[in-house]
Amino acid sequence: MLVARRRVIISSPRLFLTSSNSFFLVIRLERTIAKVAANEVEALDAISKLTSELRIASSRLERFRKQKVLLQRRGGLMLNKKAQSIKDLKELDRLEAAREARGPVNPENAKEERSPKRLRGAALASNAVESSQSIRSPSVSSGSTPPKGSGLVN
Questions:
Q1: Local structure of residue 147 (DSSP, 8 states)
Q2: Residue 80 to residue 42: CA distance in whole angstroms
Q3: Predicted TM-score of the model (pTM)
Q4: E strands within 15-148?
Q5: Which of 27, 60, 79, 143 sees the fewest Cβ atoms within 10 Å?
Q6: What would the DSSP string read from start to end of 98-136?
């Protein structure tokens, strides 16, 4: 600043003032402008900080919502599994009671002792056993183990 007889030249706003009171007003105005600028910087920093905290809180909230949904699904699956286990236990109890009573195991097949499908399956299994026994060579006795080269040939 250059001071000359009651005339003050301020470099920043480039004002020419003639009274000393005006000089002090300009200084106060410059200080106020500097404070406002500093407050603006602080406010922008605070806004930036709060914005990042808001983003963090939002991501946490989203993560908690996803966890809630997953836990609800898991709880539902556990309840379904428990219900299925209870049904299975009831079925096992019914089967055991039927065995003890020597009655038919399946109440739908109470009229038939055995279904035709079971009889056919048993016949096929016995035929398979007989055919595997007939493949053995006659020189091998029933008490000894078969030689390494014996067996089915492709």
A1: P
A2: 57
A3: 0.38
A4: 16-17
A5: 143
A6: HHHHT--SSGGGSS-SS-HHHHHHHHHHHHHHHHHHHHS
